[in-house]
Design a protein that fits this description.
The complex is a heterodimer of chains A (80) and B (587). Chain A has 80 residues and is an alpha+beta fold. Chain A has one domain: 2-Layer Sandwich (Alpha-Beta Plaits), CATH 3.30.70.20. Chain A is 11% helix and 15% strand. Chain A contains 2 helices and 5 strands; from the N terminus they run E-H-E-E-H-E-E. Chain A is globular. Among the domains of chain B are: 131 residues, Flavocytochrome C3, Chain A, domain 1 (Alpha-Beta Complex), CATH 3.90.700; 135 residues, Methane Monooxygenase Hydroxylase, Chain G, domain 1, CATH 1.20.58. In chain B, a hairpin with an 8-residue loop joins strand 4 and strand 5. In chain B, helix 13 runs antiparallel to helix 14. Chain B is globular. Classes of the chains: A alpha+beta (80), B alpha+beta (587). At the A-B interface, helix 2 and strand 5 of A face helix 10, strand 16 and helix 15 of B. Strand 5 of chain A pairs antiparallel with strand 16 of chain B.
Chain lengths: 80, 587
């Protein structure tokens, strides 16, 4: 149903830091060396963001966490 | 799939089960006494426990600040006892936490965490804000990497860390002495047999007892990898567990992205307020204590305590009650904050829990700005009440009724909102006591081989099962039972029925797994079932109501009954029976 973690193949170098970090253990190393990890159990993500926070190539955009629609906040904008 | 289960045997003087804040501190301290120290962790100590992605605040009695204010440790404890715990607190344990908290902060500083700021005007160069007590006692600090630093320190001292092992059983001798513990590797599928001279249990709370409100599995304020494994193991081994009935109703907070900010106090301050649709103030905005004067001028201790007691209900309204009166929606409003205040709040959030990722999401996906936009307050998922901490019954040295078995942090019952200082201080003390116990004992005690075989059989049956169910199916059925029978309104007949249904599931349902990962999740659901049963049984036994802030309501006993129930209710398993006793609350 959800795609909580998405890797950018162009940027991710397959260091697997996120695989080690994930407390829910939902990621697995890619059998092909240097490629992004595989999201084995997307339904078990707890959206803690540890994988993203500790990604050495986070600022380059190697990893993204996608917030599911039911989790998105309700905002009252500006001057309303 | 090869379904034969192989046991790994590991001998260690001290075994720490659960490597969160408490467990890491226990390991670090225990190593000072020599001997082999092992931490068994179900996830990875770099990111596990309630502080896995960081904490921005720790409360403490801070001598360089509070002594000059004429504010004593006793004043802090009085404030904690009255305003936070409403008397439901163990005097000896809060004393341990309050007295040692500052020393543990200094330890964290030695391990490489920054607590001091050049722009601070407070003695020590700290950043200190109000949170729990009648004067500010909470450090704000750069705590995002706290688990990384603790892991590095533990490894530097020679602690062995074994990640990805979910612990399932305690091993003890017939005369009640600990001899080890059992677990299962969730990547290798192997049974781990630990022979130990002393054990520290520090696995945290049970955070998957109830369904979450958004329907996105895993989206909870507190980590869902904590499944009450320690309480379950303790229960199965006949250790008394207290306060399990206090599973509280959902309150409102930043929805739907559930995260641990404690706003609009704690992490979201100063400048945090809550308003309704017509901008009417529901909770007034916070202000910092005057930082020019904090820690320099004396305070009127009685007056600040009185003020805390009168203002606390106002700043923590009963949102579900307001909601039921048709009031709402409610919004978190920081728009009155100055640029400096907003930047402070964003710094604070970025170090706390899921905060760093939350800020990134707010800014980059929602284009949200605290300076002009407001966030709607929505219900959070239910969780074990922080106002009456459940957990193992321990003595003042954190030892349980099994000799050589200690507990620390959220594993310990009877210290509400001990939180991170509780984890740090109790972990340290339990580590020391466990190490001393291990030193006194020359040999390993015999382990119960039947338990090893029984775990091996349980696991291989799950692999071989044709009719077994997927763990999540069982978890959902159990959560439905807890939500319905131990919900906001409870009663004798309902609770009895709930117990019947839960016990029926426990006895009749089997799990099916295809790999070690699913095996781990299934073992967690077994913990959840045991925790759920304890919640239902304790709720049945407490024949009174104890409303705000405990949120415990028995329709058949709507009044509070201090004479009979101003006690901790302890339950322990004896054979197939569960026995209850009332534990006097030591002041």
């Amino acid at each position: 149903m959800f795609r909580p973690v998405v890797f950018n193949e162009e940027v991710c170098n397959g260091c697997n830091t996120c695989v080690d970090i994930c407390p829910m253990d939902i990621l697995a190393p890619n059998p092909e060396k240097g490629k992004p990890p595989i999201v084995m159990y997307p339904e078990e993500c707890w959206y803690g963001g540890g994988c993203w926070a500790r990604c050495p190539l986070r600022d380059e955009g190697a990893i993204q966490i996608i917030t599911p629609l039911p989790m998105r906040v309700s905002i009252l904008r500006g001057d309303r | 799939m090869d379904t034969s289960i192989e046991a790994n045997t590991i001998e260690t003087d001290v075994l720490v089960i659960g490597g969160g804040l408490a467990g890491c501190m226990a390991g670090i301290k225990a190593r000072e006494h020599g001997g082999k120290v092992t931490i068994a962790e179900k996830a990875n100590t770099l990111s596990s426990g309630c502080a896995g992605t960081g904490i921005d605040h720790i409360w403490a009695y801070i001598p360089p600040v509070h002594e000059k204010m004429g504010y004593s440790i006793e004043d802090l404890m009085e404030s904690h006892r009255n305003a936070i715990a409403h008397g439901f607190i163990d005097g000896e344990l809060i004393d341990l936490v309050a007295r040692d908290s500052y020393n543990r902060v200094l330890d964290l500083e030695k391990f490489g965490i920054n607590f001091r700021y050049e722009d601070s005007k407070i003695p020590g160069g700290f950043r200190i804000v109000p949170q729990f007590h009648s004067v500010p006692t909470t450090f704000n600090f750069d705590g995002r990497d706290i688990k990384v630093k603790l892991t590095e320190e533990a490894l530097r001292r020679g602690v062995t860390i074994i990640n990805r092992v979910t612990m399932t059983d305690l091993l003890s001798t017939p005369d009640g002495r600990i001899s080890g513990a059992l677990g299962v590797g969730t990547r290798d599928g192997k049974v781990y047999l630990f022979k130990a001279k002393a054990v520290v249990l520090s696995t945290g709370r049970a955070n998957r007892l109830c369904r979450n409100v958004t329907g996105v599995w895993g989206n909870h304020r507190v980590p869902v990898y904590e499944t009450g494994d320690g309480r379950a193991m303790g229960f199965r081994s006949g250790v008394p567990i207290i306060n399990m009935e206090f599973l509280s109703p959902a309150n409102f907070s930043i929805g739907n992205y559930e995260l641990n900010l404690g706003s609009p106090r704690n992490t979201v301050q100063p400048a945090g307020s809550v308003v309704d649709a017509k901008r009417k103030e529901i909770v007034p905005r916070t202000y910092f204590w005057d930082w020019e004067k904090l820690g320099k001028e004396k305070v009127d201790v009685q007056a600040v305590l009185k003020e805390q007691m009168t203002t606390r209900p106002q700043v923590r309204p009963d949102y579900p009650e307001l909601h039921s009166q048709g009031k709402g929606p409610f919004y978190l409003d920081l728009t009155s904050g100055t640029e400096e205040e907003i930047r402070y709040i964003e710094w604070s959030i970025s170090h706390e829990g899921k905060g760093l990722r939350f800020l990134d999401y707010l800014k980059n996906q929602e284009r949200f700005d605290f300076r002009k936009d407001k966030l709607e307050w929505l219900p959070n998922s239910r969780e074990m009440a922080g106002t009456a901490s459940s957990g193992l019954l321990v003595n003042k040295d954190l030892e349980t009724q099994i000799k050589g078995l200690f507990a620390a942090g959220d594993e310990v019952g009877g210290v509400p909102w001990a939180a991170s200082p509780g984890a740090l201080t109790m972990g340290w003390h339990a580590g020391e006591m466990a190490a001393k116990q291990a030193l006194r004992q020359k040999d390993f005690l015999p382990v119960n081989e039947e338990k090893v075989e029984s775990l091996e059989t349980l696991c291989s049956n799950m692999f071989d099962s044709k009719d077994g169910l997927y763990w999540r199916e069982i978890e959902l059925a159990v959560q439905n039972i807890i939500d319905h029978y131990a919900g906001n309104v409870r009663s004798e007949e309902m609770l009895k029925r709930g117990i019947e249904r839960l016990v029926d599931i426990k006895n009749s349902v089997s799990f099916r797994v295809e790999n070690p990962h699913e095996l781990g999740r299934s073992l967690e659901v077994i913990s959840i079932m045991d925790n759920g049963e304890m919640v239902l049984r304790a709720s049945l036994e407490r024949r009174e109501s104890r409303r705000v802030p405990f949120g415990f309501y028995r329709a058949d006993f709507p009044e509070s009954n201090d004479e009979d129930y101003f006690v901790f209710l302890a339950q322990r398993r004896k054979g197939e029976k569960v026995e209850f006793s009332k534990i006097d609350i030591k002041r």
